[in-house]
């Protein structure tokens, strides 16, 4: 799994990047996603994610993570198929400010919170959602199974 990391905050150290790289690669393997697949993970502050949230979701407040899936086909779109094209799953945007707030609120490490948010965003990119109760249960159960299987359980 190729992950292109961008840290606009200069607050995400190499150990967090390494952890997220290993966690997402593990999840991709468990979800049978080709190792040639690509995603980007962007770390921003609350101000930046609020702008994104307002512009794309019409919710004018900061959030913890937003995903933009590129492999989804919208209504009326034609799927482009090409054997030589890399699979670009999409972009994940994580607010480092929210991650720190939530790590404190949930009484676990920033490492656990960043892993949780990155994995949550990744699952959205590969088709999971939580728009209704059944989908929410399926996604959140899978999320916890992957976190625990990787060794990043709640502590």
Task: Please give a handful of descriptors for the protein shown.
single chain, 5 helices, alpha/beta, Collagenase (Catalytic Domain), four-stranded mixed β-sheet, globular, 155 residues
Radius of gyration: 15 Å
So, CATH architecture? 3-Layer(aba) Sandwich
Number of strands: 4
Number of helices: 5
Distance between the termini: 27 Å
Give the helix level as a range of percent.
Answer: 40-55%
Q: Please describe the biggest sheet, giving its number of strands, its sense, and whether it closes into a barrel.
A: 4 strands, mixed
From the spread of the alpha carbons, the general shape counts as globular
Low-confidence stretches: 73-81
**Mean pLDDT rating:** 91
Secondary-structure-based class equals alpha/beta
Can you tell me the CATH class? Answer: Alpha Beta
The domain count comes to 1
CATH fold descriptor: Collagenase (Catalytic Domain)
Structure notes:
- There is one protein chain.
- Strand 1, helix 1 and strand 2 form a beta-alpha-beta unit.
- Helices cover 47% and strands 17% of the residues.
- It is built from 5 helices and 4 strands; from the N terminus they run E-H-E-H-E-E-H-H-H.
- The chain has helices at residues 14-30, 46-57, 96-105, 110-125, 133-150, and strands at 2-7, 38-44, 65-69, 88-95.
- A 4-stranded mixed sheet has the order 1-2-4-3.
- With 155 residues, the protein is an alpha/beta fold.
- It has a single domain (2-150), classed as Metalloproteases ("zincins"), catalytic domain (Collagenase (Catalytic Domain)), CATH 3.40.390.
- The chain is globular, with a radius of gyration of 15 Å.
